[in-house]
Amino acid sequence: MSSQEDGDDTLDELLKDRARIEELPDNDEDEDGRPPFPGKHLKPKRKKNLPVWMSSATLSLFHEDDQTPSTEALAKTAAECLPYLTLEDTQGLPLNSHGLPHLRRKPHADFLRSCLGDLPAPYAAMDASRPWLFYWCIAGQSFLNEDVSSYKDRLIETVRPLQNPSGGFGGGHGQYSHCACTYATILALAAVDGLEVVDRKAMWHWLGQVKQPNGGFRMAANAEQDIRGAYCALTILTLLNLPLTLPPDSPARLTGNLDLFTDDLGTWISSCQSYEGGIAGAPGNEVHGAYAFCALACLCILDAPSRSIPAYLDVPLLTRWLASMQTTPEGGFAGRPNKLVDACYSHWVGACFALLEAARPPEEDTQEQHAIALTGQGLWNKAALVRYLLTCAQQPGKKGGMRDKPSARPDGYHTCYSLSGLSAAQHRYWYDGQRETEDEGGEESGRRLLAAFRWRGERGTAEEMRGLGVDEGDVVALVHPVFVLRFEAVEGARKRFAGGGL
């Protein structure tokens, strides 16, 4: 017998003894009776009775893979959040009747109040963003149904020196006016019914300086042009009911032959949508979830969403992009593809869906569209977001406040937008087209942008709250989906300046 034949015989014997197909024993089957997911023996067992989006099959897809810094960070964040999401670790937080942590209303309100007092030395870096602190902390308290009217006098006296004679507000004393700081100041003042301090005529002239001949807006005179400027400027124009005609010395009027603040704006916003479907800060830039909100909210100020949004954006492509920003297994949102979950995008991305759902043309069965809003059946997983915010975003202990993710510290920014995101998930919002036929009357300007005032909201039903896993004490206030204020504050601004003029 040759050596070749000897080798073949040896191989036959090895295959006969070792390469066998065996039936798996019954006690090694998965919970539903099927063979186990490949590699299941390498995975820790998860608790039962998890939500469907956290099923064992889904969780088994998230394996340790440190091939790149991004995958390493994603895996680390998922591992950080899973014990809280699965309720293996409740961090000592009191639980509601559904087994989820209660919304810590009082500690969160106390935390926001503390951020309006004396701050430690590192906060000096935020001197140019002082109005944002006012807005986050005052509006955030109002979302918790706290009475914020007592801040009115203090806020007016604090922001009065930040208002420049040429119009608009700076971030700190002696600083140039800036759209973001002016927007935050106007929202904070509206929250406490203190808009009388605003020099509306100077504001109108200043906004004329940041309107650009191509239809967009700069963030400040000679500063960058991006979609934040457009949203901030239109919000200011609308809440203050400033004339839509451009001032005579506006660069857009002098060099672009534009007549109105709204001229060519929709076309410019359209140019910010990328091939991915998302919205960039400016044409050709990287897309981002917060820019998507600015674009959608801006278009909802211009006109009814069923007209303005489809006219300027590829809605199916944008919808798919936004839906892909909801992370698994965390259930929160990221701001960009392959980035980490962050509680602030509960608002910046989560609030987009009410605006998108209202973009369906009225002729496509308005009753069905309204029924979708009422039942909460939509484009995103609201229960997953609520679970993330209650289990992972709340700061345990005495301090209160809400945070980006469990490894981060709480701050006013994430607390405010986490609460706004909760409102987007817990309530139902829609555009009331029937109000378009109403005549407000008495407006000297004659061209007030009224579309954003026609939004309506309703509290979710008891059945919907059970589906989200929240009790009565976990429900926040209705937050306007365009202006990110209590509806009462928006209505107060509308009535205050209903007469128009300067």
UniProtKB/TrEMBL annotation:
<dbReference type="InterPro" id="IPR008930">
    <property type="entry name" value="Terpenoid_cyclase/PrenylTrfase"/>
</dbReference>
<keyword id="KW-0677">Repeat</keyword>
<comment type="function">
    <text>Catalyzes the transfer of a farnesyl moiety from farnesyl diphosphate to a cysteine at the fourth position from the C-terminus of several proteins. The beta subunit is responsible for peptide-binding.</text>
</comment>
<feature type="compositionally biased region" description="Basic and acidic residues">
    <location>
        <begin position="13"/>
        <end position="23"/>
    </location>
</feature>
<dbReference type="InterPro" id="IPR026872">
    <property type="entry name" value="FTB"/>
</dbReference>
<dbReference type="GO" id="GO:0005965">
    <property type="term" value="C:protein farnesyltransferase complex"/>
</dbReference>
<dbReference type="InterPro" id="IPR001330">
    <property type="entry name" value="Prenyltrans"/>
</dbReference>
<dbReference type="GO" id="GO:0008270">
    <property type="term" value="F:zinc ion binding"/>
</dbReference>
<feature type="region of interest" description="Disordered">
    <location>
        <begin position="1"/>
        <end position="46"/>
    </location>
</feature>
<keyword id="KW-0808">Transferase</keyword>
<dbReference type="InterPro" id="IPR045089">
    <property type="entry name" value="PGGT1B-like"/>
</dbReference>
<dbReference type="GO" id="GO:0004660">
    <property type="term" value="F:protein farnesyltransferase activity"/>
</dbReference>
<feature type="compositionally biased region" description="Acidic residues">
    <location>
        <begin position="1"/>
        <end position="12"/>
    </location>
</feature>
<dbReference type="Pfam" id="PF00432">
    <property type="entry name" value="Prenyltrans"/>
</dbReference>
<dbReference type="GO" id="GO:0097354">
    <property type="term" value="P:prenylation"/>
</dbReference>
<protein>
    <recommendedName>
        <fullName>Protein farnesyltransferase subunit beta</fullName>
        <ecNumber>2.5.1.58</ecNumber>
    </recommendedName>
</protein>
<keyword id="KW-0479">Metal-binding</keyword>
<comment type="similarity">
    <text>Belongs to the protein prenyltransferase subunit beta family.</text>
</comment>
<comment type="subunit">
    <text>Heterodimer of an alpha and a beta subunit.</text>
</comment>
<keyword id="KW-0862">Zinc</keyword>
<feature type="domain" description="Prenyltransferase alpha-alpha toroid">
    <location>
        <begin position="103"/>
        <end position="443"/>
    </location>
</feature>
<keyword id="KW-0637">Prenyltransferase</keyword>
